[in-house]
Amino acid sequence: MTDKLTVSVLGTGIMGAAMARSIARAGHTVRAWNRTRTKAEPLAADGIEVADTPAEAARGADVVLTMLYDGPATLEVMREAAPALRPGTVWVQSTTAGIDAIADLAAFAGEHGLVFYDAPVLGTRKPAELGQLTVLAAGPEEGRATVTPVFDAVGARTVWTGEDGAAGTASRLKLVANSWVLAVTAATGEVLALAEGLGVDPQGFFELIEEGPLDMGYLRAKAGLVLDGPLTPAQFAVATAEKDARLIVAAGEQSGVRLDVAAAAAERFARAAALGHADEDMAAAYFASFDESGKPGEAAS
Predict the structure, then answer these.
(1) Which of 141, 167, 193 is the last residue of a domain?
(2) Surface-to-core class of residue 192, CB atoms within 10 Å of its CB (0-12 exposed, 13-18 middle, 19+ buried)
């Protein structure tokens, strides 16, 4: 057992709450904060102290872990925590923040003497609850003895991408990985929608590709959520998927790369959200193929 750490988790949504529980199970002291306190309160049953403010949660922490919606939200919350932050405190930012935001977060860390780790995670609700995420991490060697027990608590594997968190190498790899995940999810919805529109039994498609190079466990998992449910609670929500897709498109534009599939996926997620599926699993992008009825319409003559 490593030395016991005090870890502050700021942001207890789908991923943050699961990560907080995993850290507590590993024997560390955990204090958690969420903008909507009622979403954090169930963590008290796991021995986690629920704080009223980011500063209260961060006071005296060895490690501050942020798992918030995006980069600007993370920076805003860390500014609220600033009065309680000590120089030398390790800050693990695990939000899918995009490339531009990482520079702002790293600058904040530098201003306050924090040891900054860019450490987004790969995985959804279930692996988060099991402590089986993949952590993509960049940050200095000298702080790794402190941060490694936290990564080991939330993840089955840590992939180090560099020693400079400000360079955003971990976040860049996360965007590449998410571009694949979101493309597969969007394509899954389209396959099922087309099958329904053409009167094809989806099971016939799955039998056609079974155990061949076109088969994929992730395709079957997301298709299963559409066909059999449940879409709630979300493994990864439609609204968050749209946000990530737009970050991916923006990163491509900055690099001179046109990402037509990611751009189309962002629009599909946006349409699904507008139809009332924003908080459902991102597999609900399936519904973006239809009108408000959620069913195929008649083709125009």
Answers:
(1) 167
(2) buried
Contacts (Cβ under 8 Å, ≥6 apart) of 161: 136, 137, 138, 169, 170, 172, 173
Q: Of 122, 142, 167, which residue sits at a domain end?
A: 167
pLDDT at 236: 94
Judge contact between 20 and 77, C-beta under 8 A.
no
Q: What is the gyration radius of the CA atoms in the chain, in angstroms?
A: 20
Q: How far is CA 163 from the centre of its chain?
A: 22
Strands 29-33 and 49-50: parallel
Question: Running along the chain, 301 residues long, what does each successive block of 10 average in pLDDT?
Answer: 86 96 98 97 98 98 97 97 96 94 96 97 94 97 95 98 95 97 98 97 97 96 96 95 97 97 98 97 97 59 34
User: In 3D, which of 75, 74, 77, 67 has the Cα closest to residue 133?
Assistant: 67
Q: Which range of residues forms the domain containing residue 266?
A: 172-289
Three-state DSSP class for residue 2: coil
- Show the CA angle centred on residue 256, arms to residues 255 and 261, nearest 5°: 95
Which of the 8 DSSP states describes residue 23?
H
pLDDT of residue 3: 82
Burial environment of residue 23 by CB neighbours within 10 A (0 to 12, 13 to 18, 19 or more):
buried
28 plus 74 within the same structural domain = yes
pLDDT score, position 295: 64
Tell me the β-bridge partners of 137. Answer: 160
Residue 16 maps to a domain: yes
Which helix (H) or strand (E) covers residue 291, if one does? none
